[in-house]
Amino acid sequence: MPTSRNTALERLNTLLETSAETDNGYLDLLGAANQAGPPTGITQRLMRTTLLPQVYERYWRPALGRALKGPFGPSMAGEVTLATKLLRLKPGHTALDVACGTGRFTRAFGAAVGPDGLAIGLDGARTMLAKAVGEGGPDTVAYLRADAVHLPLKASTVDAVCCFAALHMFAEPETALDSFARVLKPGGRIVLLTTARSGWQPRRLIESAGGIVSGQRMFDRGEIAASLRARGFTEITGRYAGVTQIVAGRLG
């Protein structure tokens, strides 16, 4: 029999290093803090506003994604499908959606892991999580307000980690990758969508300047794959569209 949403929250609590209190339908480890780490720019600050979550899934994220991915990159729906496929989610799996926003990926993962699985949506913005909770979804979904860089989960507790359109906004992306690897079980899978700077110098300068203005780090092509390889990931794949890259791999 499928679990209730409260049961999903209880299951999530058992995976945490420190127990969390339920607040407005999600677990909260940040309390009164506005965010977990230092602000990195205007794009990150927008995520905490009241208006953006209301238009995020339908307008903001698809429009911004299309601008960054260009005409040949996947749609947002295509990203969800691709992420689910690359993570090879199965019934009973535990999936972690880092910087989940309003929960579109998390809900899809909840459906993929079935009634015996768990899909965790983690974000630092109260407004995003409030919208995510309000959207409903499978009873296997549970949301957590916590630090996305220093994940509060116990080691080797999840089968899959997804982080789309967020790593480049973290103040410490390499620390975040360490944390992602730590919480994954051996053989677990990861998929990331982040920035990818062009190798052509004139365009590279423009892209770098855009990153500085928006507070987003511009990674080089192949940089994330190399970082995953250094952390013991294998079966690494990468695909590029515009100034974005989608990188996936298996731990061990």
Question: Which characteristics define this entry?
Answer:
single chain, about 250 residues, alpha/beta, Rossmann fold, 9-stranded mixed sheet, 9 strands, about 40% helix, S-adenosylmethionine-dependent methyltransferase activity, Methyltransf_11
- Write down how many β-strands occur, each being a DSSP E stretch of 2 or more residues: 9
Distance separating the two termini: 34 Å
Number of helical regions: 9
Number of domains: 1
In helices, the fraction of residues equals 25-40%
Shape: globular
DSSP strand (E) fraction?
A: 15-25%
Q: Mind telling me the CATH superfamily name?
A: Vaccinia Virus protein VP39
* Average pLDDT metric: 86
GO molecular function: S-adenosylmethionine-dependent methyltransferase activity
Domain Methyltransferase type: 96-192
Pfam family, one: Methyltransf_11
Protein name: Methyltransferase domain-containing protein
What can you see in these coordinates?
There is one protein chain. The protein has nine helices and nine strands. The protein has 252 residues and is an alpha/beta fold. It has a single domain (5-251), classed as Rossmann fold (3-Layer(aba) Sandwich), CATH 3.40.50.150. The protein has a nine-stranded mixed beta sheet, sandwiched between helices. The longest helix is centred in the first third of the chain and has 18 residues, at 52-69. The chain is globular and about 45 Å long. The chain starts with a helix and ends with a strand.
